[in-house]
Specification:
Keywords: ATP-binding, Nucleotide-binding
Distance between the termini: 42 Å
InterPro entries: Kinase-like_dom_sf, Rossmann-like_a/b/a_fold
Oligomer: single chain
Number of strands: 19
Strand order of the largest sheet: 3-4-5-2-1-6-7-8
Largest sheet: 8 strands, mixed
Structural class: alpha/beta
Protein name: Protein kinase domain-containing protein
GO molecular function: ATP binding
Length: 509
């Protein structure tokens, strides 16, 4: 789009303000404004300019080929609307009618935003563009405006990788209303102050705002956490590098050993007033790859990194200390009885969301080989569940699109690992349904899957249900069972993803 037209307004009129680009599917109308809502809530500050690109890929096209460039600047009530048609195939009369319809539609939808932004000293530059590819348009505008963020409507998910590859700013993709996947700039990375500021805003909401929590039917509301009770990994300044002296102090001079095997040593400790877990790995290619991955991961249903220390031949990884593992809960009759079907269904959704982030939403490609089972699921004090991915260092967890990992993971078939992760999710669902541990299951040499699969295939659930729960008619159990069967029957001929499995767990399919 040509922003050098004489009708165009200045985007850099403020010495301190910066630009934020919001790209929307203009054909969705009001439904596409969630991206603008999110940008204003979390990113935009006083004196900033929000450039909203409403892309209309189909308007102005008719079968007869022609090319009639059309430019029209319209100032209305302080909202600047710029309509540009690069491949127009309408007659001038038809084009004017289409312009009028879209102008009136956007005036109606965006008028409240104009007043809101004016109070906050934020400028709006609203542009509708027809005949352009949204991803190329976003990159072109980023080259001109040098924004610090580009926010994409969720319907433009297919454009995410192309845009991030070709711009130098942070990118956010709306996942659902109020929730976005964040991708840090290739230049500054997640360590820059701007990134940390936005994450801190989101952190404040993540533990207090219902918009950021998928409410479970009939589930009790949790008391909001205060900032000082946030997990360390969610606080500003974390994850960070620790010195060896700090590690020694945290672990009481390495006296607090809780586990030692051939791969690692695990210590418990205290940092400030917070309990943490410290894992010590031998410094090799696999543990270095693990550190590289977990330092980038950030999701509420993953046990996130607090910090690290790499010294000599050892790598120390610190994470928040959970209340315990799901497996330990299932092995305790009292704890398992308190884990109702509603809570188990919620855990299935939360862990599935964590896998979905790692498989489909992580900025640098798919993270696979997650070794999912109940012993690798941590339970928090607020009844949240988190996937622990630190076990996978010996199994070559991999960032799919990272060429630097090829020497470490050259023998990994990512599609095969995605299938295995989905099948593991199915076994995890069996653990929730039966209350049995996959790792400790014993039944005449049968595995948990061998025992359960005939019941699933015949849709006979009663022999599988955890007998410690008296309620046997909860429909969410059937949803989990159907998803488990789909996961376990998954092979290369099926086109299944964790997103599709989550839809079955929710009862949407």
């Amino acid at each position: 789009m040509d922003s050098s037209s004489g009708d165009s307004i200045s985007l850099q009129s403020s010495a301190t303000g910066e630009n934020v680009i919001v790209v929307m599917d203009g054909n969705r109308g009001k439904g596409s404004l969630d991206a603008l809502d999110w940008a204003i809530k979390y990113i935009v500050g006083p004196n900033d300019t929000v450039v909203v690109l409403g892309v209309l890929p189909e308007i102005g096209k008719k079968p007869a080929p022609s090319c009639l460039p059309f430019h029209l600047g319209i100032g209305t009530s302080g909202i600047w609307i710029k309509l540009e048609f690069s491949h127009n195939e309408m007659t001038p009369s038809e084009l004017q009618q289409a312009i009028g319809r879209k102008k009136r539609e956007y005036q109606k939808f965006l008028q409240p935003y104009y007043h809101h932004c004016k109070k906050r000293e934020v400028k709006l530059d609203i542009r509708l563009a027809a005949g352009y590819e949204s991803k190329k348009l976003a990159v072109e505008e980023a080259e001109k405006l040098d924004p610090r963020w580009i926010v994409l409507d969720g319907y433009l998910k297919k454009d995410k990788e192309y845009i991030h590859k070709n711009v130098d700013c942070h990118v956010a993709l709306l996942k659902e209303k109020g929730v976005a996947t964040l991708i840090p700039s290739k230049i500054t990375g997640p360590e820059c102050e701007e990134w940390q500021t936005v994450c801190r805003k989101i952190d404040d909401q993540a533990f207090t705002d219902d918009d950021f929590v998928e409410e479970l039917p009939n589930s009790p509301k949790q008391t909001p956490l205060t900032p000082c009770s946030y997990p360390l990994s969610w606080r500003t300044g974390f994850p960070r590098a620790f010195s060896l002296g700090e590690i020694e102090e945290i672990t009481n001079d390495f006296q607090n050993v809780t586990l030692k095997d051939q791969n690692r040593i695990i210590y418990t400790g205290v940092y400030g007033e917070n309990q943490v877990i410290v894992m010590c790995f031998r410094a090799d290619d696999h543990s270095a790859s693990l550190l590289k991955i977990v330092s980038r991961v950030r999701h509420r249903n993953i046990l996130n990194l607090v910090g690290y220390c790499w010294i000599g031949g050892s790598i120390f990884l610190l994470c928040d200390c959970p209340e315990g593992s799901l497996e330990a809960c299932l092995l305790c009759d009292k704890a398992a009885t308190n884990l109702s079907w509603n809570k188990r269904w919620g855990i299935a959704l939360e862990i599935g969301a964590g896998i979905q982030y790692l498989h489909e939403e992580f900025a640098d490609g798919s993270i696979v080989n997650l070794s999912l089972c109940s012993c690798n699921v941590a339970l928090g004090g607020d009844s949240s569940s988190m996937l622990c991915i630190y076990e996978t260092t010996t199994k070559q967890m991999k960032i799919d699109n990272d060429p630097q990992d090829e020497s470490i993971c050259k023998n990994i078939d990512v599609n095969e690992q995605l299938r295995e992760d989905i099948q593991d999710y199915g076994v995890f669902l069996l653990e929730l349904i039966s209350g049995l541990s996959r790792r400790l299951f014993e039944n005449d040499g049968q595995s948990l899957v061998d025992w359960a699969l005939p019941f699933l295939e015949k849709n006979i659930l009663s022999p599988m249900l955890d007998p410690r729960l008296t309620e046997t008619s909860d429909p969410r159990v059937a949803h989990m069972a159907r998803a488990a069967l789909a996961c376990l029957n998954y092979d290369s001929s099926h086109n299944l993803t964790i997103s599709k499995m989550l839809a079955i767990v929710r009862g949407n399919q």
